[in-house]
Amino acid sequence: MKRTLNPGNKAGLLILYALLILGLTGSNVMALDKQVAENPMLDYQGLGKVTAIEEVVCNVGMVDNLISNTTSEKATGTNDWTIIIGDDSAELPSMIWKTPSVYADINHYLYFASLRLGYNGHIIRLSQDKATGITVKRYGVDADAISLFDTEFYIDDQSPLVPAQYKVGVGVRQKTYAWSEGYRDDFIIYDWWIYNLTEDVLDSFFVGIHADCDISTAEGGSGAQAWSRDDLPGYVRDSLNGEYISYMYDGDNPTVPGDDIGGRQSPKESSGYIGSRLLYCPPAIGDTEPSVQKGHGWWDWNSDPSDDDAAAEWFDRLSDGLWLEPPPSPHDFRYYQKFGPFSIPANDSIRVMVAFGIGEGLSGLRENLEWAKYLFEHDWIGPSAPNPPTYTLEPGDGEVTIEWDDAAESSIDPFSGEEDFEGYRLWRKTETGWSLLMECDVINEIGFNTGLVHSYVDYDVHNYFQYTYSVTAYDRGDPDNDIESLESGVGSGKTVEPGTYNETRGVATTGIHVVPNPFVAQSAPDFGFVPDQNNPATERIVFVNLPDDATIRIYTLTGDLVFTLRNTEDATYGWQKTASWDLITDNMQTIVSGLYLYVVEAPGMDDFIGKFAVVR
């Protein structure tokens, strides 16, 4: 359970001091509107020139998500003419929640979401051919970075591809922020500056968040029992505390026996609630208070706007001001979070900011997104883990050496102003997630008092198989403020392949062999195989010390061709010396127990014939 700050101790003084400095006491409206008024219009040179479609993955916390400057869905090629958030069909993380860790790589909670801008009866069309490249910055590396992973790009509707009736004169600068510390690693903040590029006032301008949340892919299933067919939307509307959240969660699929709320496996794979909380928007026309959500809608996939008048239908749903109560039964729903109407003066801008996050149950989601609100209101100052160390991996014969620097040891927590580094942890990825290999800490009055080291040799490895490592740094926490010890994120780690390789390049056949040989299925986890529920090919053998441009053909003892691979395209080592096979035949069948022959062919050499065994 994440802790909240104790208002009765020194944190309260720090918070009050921050409020006074920021001018947020008494009138949030004045301070936040001042931020909007003083923000300069877009500087294209600050973001780079218009570029091709770019994709980056934000993966520093417990939520991974695709950030792209495209306006099109990957699966269908449909151009939505707006900023896409995530996109499960891109085969990249789309609000993946790394809890439980056994599903960490496949636990997508979002098909895709999008920013919807409405004006004059239709949805504005932003065009990806007017998008800049994506800038990535990191706190501790880039002086003006806010988080451990900042992104930024710009897009507008000033493209010849946009029909004249939809061309309004609107640009959007999107920024995102994400962190790795435990209290703020379950959300990503989206910060939009929306520009009026014209000489006229844009009145009755609406902003919305559309989210097609499929919770979650790890649940599996197909047809009526698919993971996307048993979700339910809802909302939190607490005007007294300024809390507005639209969310979705995994419900009980009536076509699946028993109660499958939160998932069908053990541990539950879909127990999280995903949602977006409004952090800031200007007062709507006729209002004086900022940061007020004006509606929440939902519909199922059969009611997606799709006809010739879809732009008008999107606008109607965005501007209706309705708060729809949850549907009676689960299905494949989308939600629509609605803000406005706003007035944007000529050559000016408004700011809209939301936090997308996931939490354990509704209470967990609300707690996580409350931290997002806290950070925004306190100029992003909060307890921080030490800066992550820089580390290297050096493969050897039956070993991997991991070394890291000491930069984390001088990290200053921006919340306390102190150097509170405590130690390092070394992690290795296994079939069930990340496993702790080693931990060391400063000799003081807390912890294990092992003393610090900056290298480690892992001998528990097999040659020619890949291993993924990560080194993190953690602090001592702040018990006085009920803040737990904070650790930098493991991220995606770095991968290495130990082993020795024949130095003779070209067509030499010295040392060609297969590992492991025999392949024993029960021993697969010992070789670092990580199960993938979406792909049965979680086993493999490796052909080692191959000549350049080799072709490997695998046969049964009766001469039937089983599979063909080439190390030029399947190589897993820098010299194209190895090629791996997942034991799946050309007919997409898993090979059975038995003895197999393989023939290695390469230009300028005689064929090399070998054999290997499989035991299941």
The overall strand count is 32
How is the biggest beta sheet arranged? 8 strands, antiparallel
The CATH architecture name of the largest domain reads: Distorted Sandwich
* Backbone structural class: mainly beta
Spatial ordering of strands, largest sheet: 7-8-9-10-17-14-13-12
Spans of at least 5 consecutive residues whose pLDDT stays below 50 are 1-46, 501-507, 531-537, 569-576
Explain how this protein is built.
This protein is mostly beta strands. The chain folds into 3 domains: 10-377, Glycoside hydrolase, family 65, N-terminal domain (Beta-galactosidase, Chain A, domain 5), CATH 2.70.98; 391-496, Immunoglobulin-like; 513-615, Sandwich (Immunoglobulin-like). The chain is built from 6 helices and 32 strands. It has helices spanning 10-22, 28-38, 44-47, 310-319, 361-377, 567-570; strands spanning 55-58, 63-68, 84-85, 96-97, 112-119, 122-123, 135-137, 150-156, 170-177, 187-196, 202-212, 231-238, 243-250, 272-280, 295-300, 333-344, 349-360, 391-396, 399-404, 421-430, 433-441, 455-458, 467-475, 494-496, 513-515, 519-520, 541-544, 551-556, 561-566, 579-581, 594-601, 608-615. Strands 7-8-9-10-17-14-13-12 form an 8-stranded antiparallel β-sheet. Strands 3, 5, 6, 11, 15 and 16 form a 6-stranded antiparallel β-sheet that branches. Strand 5 (112-119) and strand 6 (122-123) form a beta hairpin. The model is unreliable at 1-46, 501-507, 531-537 and 569-576 (pLDDT under 50).
